[in-house]
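[audit] Reproducing an earlier prediction to check determinism. Same input, same settings, fresh worker. If the tokens differ from the archived copy the diff job will pick it up downstream; this log only records the rerun itself.
[audit] input (54 residues):
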Amino acid sequence: MLKVEERYLATAVLVIGTGGAGLRASIELAQAGVQVLAGWNALRPRPRIRRSWP
């Protein structure tokens, strides 16, 4: 069974997702002096993108 630990955090902006857009938004906000927390769901893996090349 998975043990879950609860934590309470306070921030001005919560960015969900740490892909390119999420990280870029976090960086811009932090450079503007805004308190930012960026996170992702580590319990659910992201789907893999498959590409077919001609």
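[audit] rerun output stored. Observation attached for the diff report: The radius of gyration is 15 Å.
[audit] end
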